[in-house]
Amino acid sequence: MKIETIAIHAGNKTDDATKAVIQPIVMSTTFEREVDGSYAKGYIYSRAANPNRHLLENVLAQLEGGVEAAAFSSGNAAGMAVFQSLKPGTHIIGPDDMYHGLRNQIKSLFAGILEFDFIDVNDEAVLKAHIKSNTGLIWVETPSNPLLKVTDIKNVIAIARQHDIKVVCDNTFATPIFQQPLSLGADLVMHSSTKYFGGHSDLMGGALITPENNEWWQRIRQVQEMGGAIPSPMDCYYLVRSLKTLPYRMKGHEHNANLLTRFLEKHPNVESVMYPGLASHPQHEVAKSQMLGFGAMFSFCVKGGADEAKKVLSKLKLFTIATSLGGVESLIEHRASVEGPDTKTPHNLLRVSIGLEHIDDLIEDMEQALAF
Ligand SMILES: *Cc1c(COP(=O)(O)O)cnc(C)c1O
């Protein structure tokens, strides 16, 4: 089945009891037991399993080409389940531009439990130099935030394999529509479902997807079920609903990103544009070889400094100044302010999550905001 078909059918099942075409939302926390103690439909208690979560996990697994998925209440909860599944003392290597919320989580909650290094994973020599006998995990996030750097997933996996190290790929920016890390050999895929999966900036969620049901995966399942950072039946329902349009939303987002980045690249008040789909992107060829499309996140640097960048922000009408990404409405933010005083992000950089408005309106808005 093609991905558009999977998105519509893998998370939906006609209800046996009523023949409703769309699955009902099962709010019940508990399920009736037979006198002999068995559970006729396999459900016992909703923290362990719930019909809506079951369908959500089914569509997530199939979209990423995996065998099982575990849904969480946020992307950070999904990431945390990975770190909690590791033996204490395990060394993990993450990218120096890893999503700051997860990097901070490791640094503050796992200090003294796990060892970690945040490095330039794209530099093969640096990566190899940081591998130790207790390294158990390499975390990959590509394209990265907010510089849209691209990591050669296959290359990292080849290095990891030589040392029996697992590779996890945060696929939030690309989504399985544009990148399928499991097919490149990744051991696990992680998502913030809050972003493109939800797609409407109105729910929080996270997911992990595995290519096989191994011992590590069973440990992750334990963290999910015993830790309990699970999404509600309502959130699962909304996510399944949103995922049905994911392929078409992604195509629309990408179409807009392609045209707006090309407009910005030619604009005299723009210093640079960071988007893997541009021939000027330093890893454009790597992106072309491992991605099925280039996604819709991009950043650009306004000529001048923070003042000029903020002036552009203040003049935009269709781009809302807000963090997060992946919704149908266009968002923009000054990343250096968000990341705080120790940020390495250029002060004239603006990060854009382009929505599904008509591209002519978005270009017109950008044009008036950049006229200074
Ligand atoms: C947002 C995000 C996360 C964290 O997800 P939450 O749903 O906010 O907890 C992790 N990785 C990336 C790339 C993200 O954009």
UniProtKB/TrEMBL annotation:
Gene Ontology CC annotations of this record: cytoplasm
Q: Which GO terms describe its biological process?
A: transsulfuration
Q: Which cofactor does it need?
A: pyridoxal 5'-phosphate
Q: Does the keyword Transferase apply?
A: yes
| UniProt xrefs under InterPro entries | Cys/Met-Metab_PyrdxlP-dep_enz (IPR000277), Cys_met_metab_PP (IPR054542), PyrdxlP-dep_Trfase (IPR015424), PyrdxlP-dep_Trfase_major (IPR015421), PyrdxlP-dep_Trfase_small (IPR015422)
Tell me which domain of life the UniProt entry assigns to the organism this sequence originates from.
Answer: Bacteria
List N6-(pyridoxal phosphate)lysine occurrences by residue.
Answer: K195
Ranges that cross the membrane: none
Q: Which UniProt keywords apply?
A: Pyridoxal phosphate, Transferase
* The keyword Translocase is annotated on this UniProt entry: no
GO MF, one example = pyridoxal phosphate binding
Name the family. Belongs to the trans-sulfuration enzymes family.
Q: What is this protein called?
A: PLP-dependent transferase
Source organism of this protein record: Mucilaginibacter mali
